[in-house]
Amino acid sequence: MPIKVAKTSGFCYGVRRAMELALAATHKHRSQRVYTWGPLVHNRQAVDLLQARNIVPAETVDVIRNGVVLIRAHGVAPGVRRELEKHAEEVIDATCPHVARAQQIASEYASRGYAIIIIGDKGHPEVTGILGCVPDGRGFVVETPEEVSQLPRNLEKVCVVAQTTQSGERFEPIAKNIKSIYPEAKIFNTVCGATSARQTEIKELARDVDAMIVIGGYHSANTRRLAEISRQYGVPTFHIETAEELEFNKISRYHTIGVTAGASTPHWVIRNVIERLREFEEMRRSTVVRFIHSVLRFFIYTQLYLALGAGSVAFAVQCLLRLPLNARLSMLSAFYVLCIHTLNRFLSLPQDESLLYGMQKYFARQKRLMRFMWVFSGILAVGVSLLLGLASLILVSVSLFLGALYSLAIIPRGWLPGVRYRRLMDIPGSKDLFMAIGWAVVGVVIPFVANRAITPIPAFLMSILIVLILVLVRSMIYNIRDIEGDIIIGRETIPILIGRRWTERIVLVLLGMLTVVLIVGWATGIFPVLSLLLLITVGYIILTAYYKWQTEFYQGLAYDAMIDGQFILIGVIAILWRFVLE
Ligand code: SF4
Questions:
Q1: What is the 3-state secondary structure (H, E, C) of 230-260?
Q2: What's the start-to-end Cα distance of the chain, in Å?
Q3: Residue nearest to ligand 1 atom 7, measured at CA
Q4: What is the pTM (predicted TM-score) of this model?
C-alpha cells in the first residue's frame, strides 16, 4: 500500500505563528491563563493539549476580564477588538497577515464609499471579522455563483475580497459573475498562498492515488475544501480528524493512498495517521515479512542499533588516533550510549498519548523492557570501564551520574517561583549538548586516557570535535522533525528557539566544519587517509537530512534507521580501511 503524503500538509504559516505567540504568552504570564478568542485551531486534540498548557478558548468577554487574550489567525471585527481591549489586561494580535490584508482592503474601500462583497462561507469567523470592517448594510457575503444575482442592483461602487481559505475554483466563477453585473468592480483575490498551494497539490495528488485521506477538523473550512476538491476529481475521499477513525476494511481495498491535511492540523496527528496506514500495510504482509520487520523494529527502537553505531564510532576514533585496537573501548561506548539514550527517551516521553509515535510509542508500550535495558546497560558500562582502569571508571560514573541528574529537578517546585529552568533538561538545547559531550567522553576521552602516552593532543582535540559535531547534527535533525509536538508540550529545543530555517543552516555549517576538520586532519598528517574516506559520511548525512526536509513527514522505521545509519557507516568505512585498505 504505497502512501503519498502531500508536502503542504499541516500547519500553515498563520496557524503556526498564532500557536507560537500563544505559547510565548504562557511563558511571559506564568501564573495566568492565556485565553484565545475562540479555539486557536480547529483540532480537538491540539485544543486539549493547549488547555493543559493553560491556553484556553474564551467565548465571552466576561471570562477574560483583566486577563490575557489572543486574537487567533482568523482575526476579529474592529468592534470585537475594542471590546477585548476594554476588558483584557493585554490583547495579543495573532491575526494572520493575509487575513489582515483582506480586512484592510475591505475597510479602506468601505471608507471610500464602496460596497464590499466577500466571497466566502457565511458565519465563518474570518468572514465575520472582514464583514465587521464594513459599515452596516454595505457588506455582502456570497457562497455560490448563483447567489450573485440576489445582490442589490443599485450598488454603484463594488469591491470584492475572498475568505483566504476559499478555493480558486469557487472564487473565479463568482468573481466573473460579479464582474458581469458590476463591470467597474474592484476585485482582490485574497485567497492565501498556503491555501492555493495545498489545493494545487491535492489536485496533482488526486491523479496518482486510488483513495485520499484528508485530515483535519470537521469545522475547518480549508480542510473541508480539500476534501471537496478531492471528491471533485472522482477520488474516494475520507475526511477524518484522528487516526482512530481509519478502518482497515474500508482502506485496505485501495492500492495507493494519498494523505493531506488542513492548515490547522498538527504534524503529529498526520504522523499518527501515516503510522496507522503502515500498520494496515503490515497486516497484509506474509508472516515471514512481518517477523523480519518486528525484529528490525526491536533492534532499532530499543536503541541497540544506535548502541552499535556508538561502538562503531569508538572503533573509528581508535583508527583515526592510530591506537592499538581495543574491543572494550567500543563496548564501553555501546553500553554507555544504550543506557543514556534509553533513560533519556524514557524520561522525556510526552504525557499525552496522542503525541506518541514510532519509537516513543514503542517505549511507552515496552516500559518494563526499556527500564531493564537502561539499568543493565548502565551496569555493563561501569563494569567495562572498571576493566579499563580507575580513570575510566571515574569518568564513566560521573557521566552516568550527570546523565541521571540531567532530568531531575535541581530547584524543587515551589522554590524561587521566577526561575524558569528547574532541571538541566529544561535549558534549551542542553539535551543535545549533554548527549554530544557524553559520546565524546566515552568515544574519545577514555581511549585517550587509556593511551595517553601515544596519543598526540591535536588528534585528540580534533577527534572530540568530530564526535561532538556528529552527535549534535543527529540531534538537530531529530529536533527539526519533532518541532510541533515539542512546541505543544513546551520542550524548548534549538529549532524552537531559533526557528527551523536557522537550525537547518547551523546543521549545514556544522557539516562544513566537519568536512574541513577531516580534510585538514588528513592533509597535515594528524589523521590517516581514513579521515578522507569519512567524508562519505558527510555526504550521507546531507542526503538523509535533505531527503527529510523535502519529504517533510515521518517516514517510519526506515527513516530512523537512515539517520542513525551514519554511525554504522562510519564503522563500516573504518573496518574496510583498517582490515582491507591499510
Ligand atoms: S490559511 Fe493562509 S490566511 Fe489562513 S491562517 Fe493560514 S496562512 Fe493565514
A1: HHHCCCCEEEECCHHHCCHHHHCCCCCEEEE
A2: 46
A3: 14
A4: 0.73
The radius of gyration of the chain's CA atoms, rounded to the nearest angstrom, is 28
176 against 264, higher pLDDT = 176
Residue-level pLDDT at 432: 80
pLDDT tens profile 112-133: 999 999 999 999 999 999 999 9
Nearest residue by C-alpha to atom 6 in ligand 1 = 14
Nearest-CA residue for ligand 1 atom 8 is 14
The C-alpha cell at 50 is 493547549
**Ligand 1 atom closest to residue 15's alpha carbon, by position in its atom list:** 5
- Phi-psi category of residue 213: left, alpha or beta, with phi > 0 → left and psi -120 to 50 → alpha: beta
Q: Which residues line ligand 1 (CB under 6 A)?
A: 12-15, 73, 96, 98-99, 164-165, 192, 194-195, 222, 263
CATH of 98-191, one of 3.20.20.70, 1.25.40.10, 3.40.1010.20, 3.50.50.60: 3.40.1010.20
Determine contact, residues 107/84, Cβ cutoff 8 Å. no
- pLDDT tens for 33-57 read 899 998 887 777 778 778 877 889 9
How far apart are the CA of 195 and the centre of ligand 1, in A?
7
> What is the Å distance from ligand 1's center to 98 Cα?
6
CATH code at 295-581: 1.10.600
Q: Are 230 and 214 a contacting pair, CB within 8 Å?
A: yes
Tell me which residue has cell 522533525.
481
Please list the active-site residues.
126
CATH class of the domain defined by 194-294? alpha beta
Sequence length of the chain is 582
- Ligand 1 center–CA 23 separation, angstroms: 19
Kindly list the domain boundaries of the chain, sorted by start residue.
11-96, 98-191, 194-294, 295-581
Q: At what angle do helices 358-365 and 327-347 cross, to 10 degrees?
A: 90
**Is residue 284 exposed (0-12), middle (13-18) or buried (19+ Cβ within 10 Å)?**
exposed
Write out the H or E segment, with its range, that includes residue 115: strand 115-119
Q: Residue 11 Cα, ligand 1 centroid: separation in angstroms?
A: 9
Per CATH, the number for 11-96 is: 3.40.50.11270
Contacts 24+ apart (CB under 8 A), 476-483: 476/432, 476/503, 476/506, 476/507, 476/510, 477/507, 477/544, 477/545, 477/548, 477/563, 478/563, 479/432, 479/503, 480/504, 480/548, 480/549, 481/548, 481/554, 483/267
The residue among 454, 5, 438, 457 whose CA lies nearest residue 208 is 5
Q: Would you call 178 helix, strand, or coil by DSSP?
A: helix
**Which residue from 43, 127, 164 has its CB within 8 A of the most atoms of ligand 1, so it is best to mutate?**
164
Looking from the CA of residue 165, the nearest atom of ligand 1 is 1
Do 98-191 and 194-294 show the same overall fold? yes
